[in-house]
């Protein structure tokens, strides 16, 4: 192993020029050689480098990292691989580092190419002048540290509190915390609506869209050849087929743009992809993604299938609140302390099956169903620890008592199997909402291993309850919901095996993962590795994993990648879109800026979820119609009054939000009932029973509009795989 590591260190010193020559040498008959059993499954997204050194988890990319023969990097970098082949550490040895470069990894005689992107982080000096006020402790809190003040203490120098921050370009909302008191920055006039009736100060860092950077666009396709248009000069161009960097044998730049010849090897693949990037001194281009079918540019949406994940339009249902298909399993809790809103209302898997058979989803246009958790929940009610201590049933499914059995309120293995088979027969995917972070205290696993839970009592004697950011990886959701310590091998292996069970037994097509940011990364890597080995490779079918995390884009993106999740829901973009579409005094320039920030973090062809709402947020139309105020307690509002549609303008605003989601990159996601404008405050008022009949004229009109929008997206190759460019944006 020492000799192997020494060889790699020596190899790292070779230049990228030599790497390019070796790649040329691997071609046979003017084509590329591809392993029958490739080391990289799927498409490896670019690796975002850190300013000085970058740690790459090799298992995220390669199935057998210990089989690496040699590695070639740009001459400005060097590397080492740990003795166990688990990690590669890339170190910057001279600057400037190229904005984009290719790392070539040779394994068993085959080269694999990974795109490296130079860190975009810049230093930002921050100061706070308290004027005549004296403070003993000052901290900065905001988007840059996930609103945890203790992460960013300021130092006092000559009466000025200050710090230096290394940040991605963008806008950061923040506040100053002086001796425990939160406040806006008195020296900064720029403020932003925080969505809760107040404001935050705004810090502007760098430029998210540098003037003069290359811009790429798809221009022309001719069977096995395509042309990529180019605006602004490009000093460096990178063309990939799958995970192989193509040299000048396959492409050239002329007056029309970048002319690419598809490798003949692509004809052996039902689906593969061409990707293109460019860079110059001003910045990095957008990414081009072109799907191929048997080596030809795919231009007809009729040839797309449910395995083409970029074509997904997700529809999310809470099983208990969608449709009652089997009254025999109705069993609401007979507890007078449980309000009807918090009790079982009869929805089940049979109801979803019926709507599949009746064509509801096909008529609407959605092609991917996401169902709330269906594992067995407790048979009795439990009271929230926070006042007023209301008692809930487990109708929502987020309190698992078992890991592999179906809740008797929802159905049987047979009806679940039939529902998924019917969906697949209509070319629809089905995603399962899976809870890995915690179990109910009556779960046999917790009873047998109470030490598998994180501590409920902190060293300072506080209860570790809902400390979402301060104790992100250990906090409990409630006193009866122990958070599992998923950093322990016996725990993360058991829970990942449980998740794998649902995919293999019932043929689910993926997961929506609950509370993603509260779970250690080792769990996600373990689960993803098992899914790749036992489902993607063995069963030859894709698995889509999308996570739920509230937080900064930096935090959310840290869970997205080849060895982690495919995507997360873009809550930051949603909140900005909600502000713009629901309110009348917010500039659309803010939304345009937010969208560009998402591109910079997740790419222009990401699988991030773009939502209309979800089970943890008030219904959009309640804000948009004026029935619910942004500055009120949106949970209690639903208990104090009936939240309906106050002004019918709300339907048009909701249609505008959905039109936005349907025409931007990502995966549009509709919360059940939003297709006709179901109103509601926050949980549980946002979880009303679905309405299929007796829709009002405004509800019917909205539903028809939404269906047209969805069908427009799914029948348009440009909307599914094309290039996004903002033509114009104004305040209004």
Number of helices: 16
Radius of gyration over all CA atoms, rounded: 26 Å
Write down how many β-strands occur, each being a DSSP E stretch of 2 or more residues: 34
CA distance, first residue to last residue: 63 Å
- Estimated structural class: alpha+beta
Residue share in helix: 10-25%
Principal-axes geometry comes out as: globular
- Uncertain runs: 1-28
Write down the overall mean pLDDT: 95
Strand order of the largest sheet: 32-31-30-29-26-25-34-33
What share of residues are in beta strands?
15-25%
Question: Biggest sheet, open or closed, and with what strands and sense?
Answer: 8 strands, parallel
Outline the structure in words.
The structure is a single chain. This protein is an alpha+beta fold and 732 residues long. Helices cover 23% and strands 23% of the residues. It is built from 16 helices and 34 strands. The strands form 8 sheets. It has an 8-stranded parallel sheet. The model is unreliable at 1-28 (pLDDT under 50).
